[in-house]
Known about the structure:
The chain is an alpha/beta fold. 43% of the residues lie in helices and 17% in strands.
Amino acid sequence: MTILSIIIPAYNEEKSINELLNRVKSVDLSSLNVDKELIVVNDGSKDNTSELVEKNHKDVLLLEHPQNLGKGAAIRTGIAKAKGDIILVQDADLEYDPTEYFVLLQPILDGEAHVVFGSRYLSTDQKRRNYEFLKKQHAGAYRLFYLGGRLLTIITNFLYGAGITDEATCYKMFKKEVLKKIKLNCERFEFCPEVTAKTIKAGYRIKEVPISYYPRSIKEGKKIKFKDGIQALWTLVKYRLAD
């Protein structure tokens, strides 16, 4: 049976961690002959994130950072402990839908790809939702994230010839051998541009599949900032010039 390791970096996510883990656990992948390994990396949370995982989710591997090191560092910690054949990053919020693991897994299981990104810009329904979020729901903050993500995608395609639509998506799935082949240095939110750049430079083509997306606001706990966008841009340029 194939093992899917789901790495969940978590920092101060007590409001959503229980619901997120319940949603992930409810996804039955046995029809694909796939079992799940759940890994939560508590990245120095100052709330009850760790206690909730310990109390309510005994079947989840809980890894601890004694202090906050950043999302990228948490993902690297999870990758180092993952036993699965395939690895997926799942944010601890509720922005992404775990029922879409099926569509992410299929190209890898069919031998079509080693790397699959879930794109928020491929389905007609999600394009409509994106427009609604831009116009109505916490529009100011979402507009900045939306435009920043689109810009990073354009730059990724220009620098690396990636031919993708969503560089900044959380849903990135890899055969484990891909992540063994590249060395990650990320600490914060630069995981996405670094792993994208190094995956392409290692010779892997990124396959995209459509996914849905339900963004939360800064008030609801969204943590990425403008400076993280600047760091992501620099990361793309840096790894185009050096390894």
